[in-house]
């Protein structure tokens, strides 16, 4: 069976795209490995009408909506995508049968490469955080730490930004060297700077309690923001030969179209700052553009079939 579209990734972006395509009466399959980036978080925020919902709950609702319109959600992992020699693709699954499809939409997201500090991974998504728009309101007016790391621009900006949610913010540059202008900005902003290497995040009684430095000092804190390094899960796209930009990320046009005909991408796999709701919106836009791409192929096939039929008729 040939499908119209295989969507790789069953998060908010992938399911949003599949919903649009299924409602457009396209034969669509979502292949979902079941590893959502926001799984550690207890609640999602900033998604209109779903604020405060458990992330898994949003996906449950999304899967139900897609299947209600005839879409298929397959729990599996994509091992690779190959061109089939014509206009389509063969999507190879690790456990299931190959899927033949006319187009592919990749919504595999990204990986958060966390600072290598004890306590970070254990409390990730609970009280060790990275996005103040997602979690800042929940830790408002509490003692907050921001810990620097490899993602320098992100954490320096983050330390100033988090100050909107609390009057008590301490920035630990850790391995970042601040210049005089940056220190002046933090002083003016009311952000305390504590120098020295960070040894660990202090966790006790299933809660963050502070930040411990290498010299043994402990600064009491109840929430910690860190700056992960964002790595796109774009192996399928690069293997297909999709063009990448100077930053190493796959390039798309405003609709999510990649440089490979028939391949689209949406969400965090091509847009690291995308919030949940903007990833879903980008995927909806990509699905509409992808449907128009399929429409053009439909019309071309219909015209070719009409011409063949006309050529087969006896001359009058």
From TrEMBL:
Catalysed reaction, written as an equation:
[thioredoxin]-dithiol + NADP(+) = [thioredoxin]-disulfide + NADPH + H(+)
Name the Pfam families on file: Pyr_redox_2
Would I find Oxidoreductase among this entry's keywords? yes
Q: Which SUPFAM superfamilies match?
A: FAD/NAD(P)-binding domain
Q: Which keywords belong to this entry?
A: Flavoprotein, Oxidoreductase
Give the FAD/NAD(P)-binding domain ranges.
3-280
What is the name listed in the Swiss-Prot or TrEMBL entry for this protein? NAD(P)/FAD-dependent oxidoreductase
């Amino acid at each position: 069976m040939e499908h119209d579209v295989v969507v790789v990734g069953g998060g908010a972006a992938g399911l949003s795209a599949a919903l649009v395509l299924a409602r457009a009466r396209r034969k669509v399959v979502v292949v979902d490995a079941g590893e959502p980036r926001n799984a550690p978080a207890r609640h999602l925020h900033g998604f209109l009408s779903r604020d405060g919902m458990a992330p898994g709950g949003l996906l449950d609702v999304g899967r139900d909506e897609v299947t209600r319109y005839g879409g298929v959600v397959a729990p599996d992992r994509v091992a690779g995508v190959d061109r089939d020699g014509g206009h389509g693709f063969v999507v190879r699954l690790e456990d299931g049968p190959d899927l033949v499809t006319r187009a592919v939409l990749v919504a595999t997201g990204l990986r958060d490469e966390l600072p290598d500090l004890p306590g970070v991974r254990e409390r990730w998504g609970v009280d060790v955080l990275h996005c103040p728009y997602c979690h800042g309101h929940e830790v408002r007016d509490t003692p907050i730490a921001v810990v620097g790391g490899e993602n320098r621009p992100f954490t320096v900006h983050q330390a100033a930004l988090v100050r909107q949610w609390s009057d008590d913010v301490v920035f630990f540059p850790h391995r970042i060297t601040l210049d005089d202008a940056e220190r002046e900005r933090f002083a003016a902003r009311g952000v305390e700077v504590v120098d020295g290497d960070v040894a660990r995040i202090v966790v006790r009684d299933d809660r963050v309690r502070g930040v411990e430095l290498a010299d043994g000092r402990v600064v009491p804190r109840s929430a910690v923001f860190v700056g992960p390094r964002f790595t796109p899960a774009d192996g399928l796209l690069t293997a297909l030969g999709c063009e990448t930009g100077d930053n190493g990320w796959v390039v798309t046009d405003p609709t999510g179209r990649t440089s490979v005909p028939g391949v689209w991408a949406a969400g965090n796999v091509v847009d690291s700052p995308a919030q949940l709701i903007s990833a879903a919106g980008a995927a909806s836009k990509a699905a509409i553009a992808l449907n128009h791409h399929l429409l053009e192929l439909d019309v071309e096939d219909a015209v070719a079939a009409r011409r063949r039929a006309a050529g087969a008729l006896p001359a009058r």
